[in-house]
Every structure is written in structure tokens, then in C-alpha cells.
Amino acid sequence: MTRKQRRMTIIGGSLAVLALAAALVLNALRDSIVFFSTPTMVAEKDVEPGKRFRLGGLVQPGSLQRGDNLAVTFEVADGNAKLPVAFKGILPDLFREGQGVVAEGALDANGVFKADTVLAKHDETYMPKDVADALKKQGHWKDDYGTQGSGTQASGAATPAATTAQGNPQGAVR
Q: What is the C-alpha separation between 54 and 109, in angstroms, rounded?
């Protein structure tokens, strides 16, 4: 075997091993690639109790129940299905009924999603109140900005972002 043939054999073997490794990793992460599952997806997949995943959707209006020791229950819906969620802890500042939410946890044997983390979704054009006030003072305020909660946001918003349970928007500077 010549030197060139040996080199090509080593390169070919290396590429085959790399392709096999990539295929094994992608196969293992097949269900985890989605950022979150909706209640409809959970119902269709028949997720077994105890399997961890992220649940996303809208908090059903009128479903929020507060209990003792920071325990809360609410329903997450996506228009077709809804799933009850139980959480014990401090909810994010932007958490409200009718708003988007992503919860991390697992289903229990009764079909209730036991969340250990809750993220409230908001618009990426979120603007803190002090920034909006500064824009108004400088005369740069646009009339198509709307107000929501403690800050303001521009209308025509597109992509949602997330807020951690401590209320700090991801990527925001405090």
C-alpha cells in the first residue's frame, strides 16, 4: 500500500467514525431538540410519568390557584388541549394569566405536570419603564408603543423571550 493510499484510508475511516458519532448523538437527542412541548404534543406522545421535559403554552385565565408555602397550580393550554401544572416557589414577575409560559419538570402518575422551574415569556421589544420615560422626555417616543405591566413594549412584536423565576429577563442588564 502506497503512502497516498494509506492516508486516504485513514481519512476515510476517520470520516466514517465521525459520521457514526454524529448519528448516535442526534438519535439520542431526537426528543430533546424541541425547545418545549405543547399540551397537545404531550397528549399525542403519551409521555410516561417521571420523564423530564419542557411544557409551553398560555396560562388559562381563571386557573391560577395559590396555596400554602408558595404552592401554586394553574393550567397551561395551547388552544387544543390543556394540562394542569403544580409549582412550588416564587413565580416570575411577568407571570400572568393569559400570558405565555414555559415550565420545566415531569408528569406525575395523576397526569399533573410537576414543575420545578417556571419561565414567563414576554416580547423581545420589552422596554423598562425608566427607558420609556427617558424617551418621552427626549422627544423620541413613538405613538405606536403600547404599555404592558411595569414597562412598555412596541406593537407588532414577534419573537418571545423568557424571564427567569427571579424576574430578570434573560440577557437584560441590571
A: 17
